[in-house]
Amino acid sequence: MRRIAAALAVALLAALTLGPPAQGAEPGFSTSYQRIQGAGGIQIGAVVLTPTGQGSGPFPLVVMPSSWGVPNLEYVGQGSKLAKSGFQVISYSSRGFWDTGGGIDVAGPPTVADVSKVIDWAALNTPADTSKVAAVGISYGAGTSLLASAEDPRIKVVGALSGWADLIKSIDPNETVSLQAVAGLLAIGNITGRPGPELQSLQAKFLTGRYDEAIAEAKVLAPVRSAQTVVGKINANKPAVFLANAFEDSIFPPTQYTDFFTALTGPKRLQLAHGDHSTPEVPGAIGLPNETWDELVAWMRHYLTGTDNGADTEPPVQLKSQRKTWRGYDNWAAVGQPRTTYLSKANLQTRPATGWQRGIAAGVPTVADSGIALVSGALQGLLSIPTGVATPLIDRSFAGVWSGEVYPSPTIVNGSPELHFTATPSVKDTSLFAYLYDVNALGVGSLISHKPLTLRGATPGKAVSIDLRMEATSWEVPAGHHLVLVVDTVDPRYLGRSSVGSSVTFSSPAGDPASLTVPVAA
C-alpha cells in the first residue's frame, strides 16, 4: 500500500511539475514527493508544492493532513492553486494510512504531533514562513488540524471542513451508535490503512457485538481526541478558525460544531450548507470551483498575510438554505427566534395540552427514517432530492405523529429545533428517533432535521422527562405547507435498542407540557 501510494504521488507530481521558471515567467509552482519524519520516528508521505516565479519567499505555509482513508493526493488540486498564488503547501497522508507509517490512532496525540513535525520540516527544507501557518483539512484532517492548533501556537489559521469537535456526540449521539457511519469508517480504515492498538481494540469489540464495551472504551479515548475538550487552549493560541459542515452530515453532524463555534473566542467563521459528509467541499479539494474553498482561501489570505479583503467584516455565521440562499448572522444565537408549539394527542397547537397519553408499540420500523448514510444527504445537497415520506402512510401504532398548522406565508426554519416530552418505556432500554418534516398539502414530507436518543437503564413503567435538541438546519418552508413531528423507535442508520413486544407511552403531564420549539428566521 505504501509503495502504491508513493508511486501514484510521484506519477501525478510528474504530470503537475512545471519545472524551473524562465526569467520573467508567470507565477507557478514546483512539486516534489517527500518522506518527512513524524512523531516517534515514523515516515510521512507528503506532496510538497512550492511557489515559483514569485521571488524567494518566505511564503505562508499551508499544512494539509489527509482525510480518513484518503492519500496525500487529496488536496493536490486546491494545493496547486494555493501554491500558484504564493502559499507553500504540504499535503500529507495521515498516520497509519497509505504511504505514512505508524498505526491509525483515531487522531491521538501522535497524529496531532505529526502536524508540528511537518511544520518543523518545512522550516528547514522549504522557503516557508513558519510564523504564518494554516492547518487545513477535510473530515479526519479537519479534526487533526483543530487539535493541532491547541498544541502549536505557530498555527495562525485553521480550516476545518466537515470535521468534528466532539467525537462521542458525533458517533454516539444521545447514547445511540451511528451504526452505518462507524461500520463504514472501520471498513475504510482496514482497506486503506493499518489500525493501531486503540482502533484494533475498538473494532474487535464492535465486530463481536460487544457494543456497550466498545462505546465505554471510546468514551475514555474521546476527550483527548475532541477539540471541544481543549477549546481553552485553542482560545489561548488565538488562531482564526474557519469551520464548515453539511446540515445532513451522517458522520459528524453539525450541532456539535455549533456548540464548539460558540465556545471559540478568537476570530471565527461557521459556514453550513446542505449535503452529506464532505460533499460541499470535496470538489474544491480537487481544484474545481467551490464556494467553501473560495471563502476559506480569502480567510487564510486575510489572517496570514493581512490582505484587506473583507473576510473579517462578513457576518461570522453563514447558512445556506435548501433553496441555495445564503444568509449571514452575527452569532449562532441570532440565526432564529424560538417559536414554541405544544403537543396534543395528534397536533401541534399554540396552547399547552396536558393530561393526555398516547402509547405505541416499540421495535417495529415505520416509513419514517433518516435515510442512508453518505447517500441521502448527498442527494439533498447536490440534487435537491430530500429524504421524503408520505405522512399518511406512517403507522400510528408504531409512531407518534403530530401535525402543525399550515403556514400562511413562507417561513425559514433556522437553527436547532428542540423537543420536550415525557416518555414511559415498558423495558429498561428503548431508542427513540425524532423527525421533523416540511409537509405539503398532499401529505408528502421532506426531512428537515432529526435526532436519536436511547433510554438506557430506565425503570420500566416509570415516566422520564426528555429534552431533545435536533440537528441544525436552514430550511425554507413554503406558504401552504406545515410541519409534522414524528417519533418512532427504529432507524436503520443507528444501532437502536428497542425490542419487539415492548412499548412506549408519550404524555404531557400537568405542569410539564410536551412541546416543540422551532427557531424561525426573522
Secondary-structure topology with pairs:
Blueprint: H1 2-16, E1 28-37, E2 43-52, E3 59-65, H2 76-84, E4 88-92, H3 109-125, E5 128-138, H4 140-151, E6 155-161, H5 167-171, H6 179-192, H7 197-207, H8 211-221, H9 231-237, E7 240-246, H10 255-263, E8 268-273, H11 282-285, H12 291-305, E9 317-320, E10 326-329, E11 337-343, E12 348-349, E13 357-361, H13 376-383, E14 388-390, E15 400-403, E16 411-415, E17 418-425, E18 430-439, E19 444-455, E20 464-469, E21 473-477, E22 482-488, E23 503-507, E24 515-520
Parallel strand pairs: 3-4, 3-5, 5-6, 6-7, 7-8, 8-9
Antiparallel strand pairs: 1-2, 2-4, 9-10, 11-12, 11-24, 13-23, 14-19, 15-22, 16-21, 17-20, 17-23, 17-24, 18-19, 18-22
Helix pairs in contact: 3-4, 4-9, 7-8
What's the quick description here?
By secondary structure, the protein is an alpha+beta fold.
Question: Keywords for this structure?
Answer:
522 residues, alpha+beta, ten-stranded mixed sheet, seven-stranded antiparallel sheet, 13 helices, globular
Can you give the mean pLDDT?
Answer: 95
Cross-sheet strand order for the largest sheet:
1-2-4-3-5-6-7-8-9-10
Quaternary structure state of the chains depicted = single chain
Q: Tell me the overall shape.
A: globular
> What is the beta-strand fraction?
25-35%
**How widely separated are the two ends?**
53 Å
Rg over CA atoms, rounded to whole Å, is 24 Å
**Helix proportion of residues, in percent?**
25-40%
Unreliable segments of 5+ consecutive residues: 17-23
Number of helices in the DSSP assignment:
13
Task: Characterize the largest beta sheet: strand count, sense, and whether it forms a barrel.
Answer: 10 strands, mixed
